[in-house]
Amino acid sequence: MSATQTDDRVVLDDLEIGEIANELDDQEPEDVIDWALDTFGDRLAIVTSFQADGLAILDMAYEVKPDVRVITVDTGRLPQETLDYIEQMQARYPLARFDIEHPDEREVEAMVDRHGLDLFRESVPMRLVCCQIRKVRPLLNALEGLDAWFTGLRRDQWASRAAIRKVELDHDHDGIVKVNPLADWSADDVAEYLEEREVPLHPLYAQGFTSLGCAPCTRPIQQGEDDRAGRWWWETNAPKECGMHCPIETGGFEHEFHAILGEAHGDDD
After folding, report:
1. What is the reported pLDDT for 110?
2. Cα-to-chain-centroid distance, residue 102
């Protein structure tokens, strides 16, 4: 499995990534992580909201490269439990390089001035605007200069994730490589790993949460509900995605999104 080096950058094309994905498809997460760290080195980061999946990847990667970079986004609406848990994980993995990104204050101010703090309740397009400003844009900034990123995506999480490969080109983020070591794992596999490794879980799991995000947009699930049913539960027939991992094809939010950026940056963005 080879990659092209260009000015210290690692660049893969669709053919190369397809061949590598085939080779890694039946490999264990640790093997995928080893390959990625060996291939991309410091131009690779774990992106996590500190859910169980991301913690499993962090724990595995830390064994190989203790100074691995860890990116998370503090949207400004996270529950206090998440902020406390981040500090707990920083203490558990002291050599890891934690990078806590924040949304642009000007963009948040412009958005709230135009639509109020809880605009996400108005409509799906307004919710997507909020996700873009508070979460997706900060992530885009953090990914600049990277050649690859780890995610905790699994195929069984949601229909939009059912076909993910363990490695794939991320054309939504400038064609860098997206590494999904847990693609073929289940939630039970993740839980078993974390229990064996004695990694403490985010405290909200004990309260019935199965997917963790911003406080006003996440609730515990009811018996029999899908794991992502607690995200934006008031929406009907809407994608359970923020736009970070896949393009949102609903339309309707882009015009207002760009209007907010123009107001925040004097039409320079």
Report:
1. 96
2. 14
C-beta separation of 202 from 81 below 8 A = yes
Q: Pick from 71, 62, 80: which is nearest to 98 by CA?
A: 71
What pLDDT shows up at residue 262? Answer: 87
Task: Say what the pLDDT of residue 252 is.
Answer: 61
Rounded (10°) CA dihedral 228, 231, 233, 235: -100
Number of neighbouring beta carbons within 10 Å of residue 256: 18
- For the structural domain made of 4-264, what CATH number should be given? 3.40.50.620
CA torsion 164-165-167-169 (nearest 10°) is: -60
pLDDT means per 10 residues in the chain (269 residues)?
61 90 93 96 96 96 98 97 98 98 97 96 91 93 94 77 83 89 92 97 95 94 88 84 60 72 75
- pTM for the model stands at 0.88
Concerning whether 214 is annotated as a catalytic residue, the answer is: no
Catalytic residue (one of 130, 131, 214, 242): 242
Q: Where are the domains of the chain?
A: 4-264
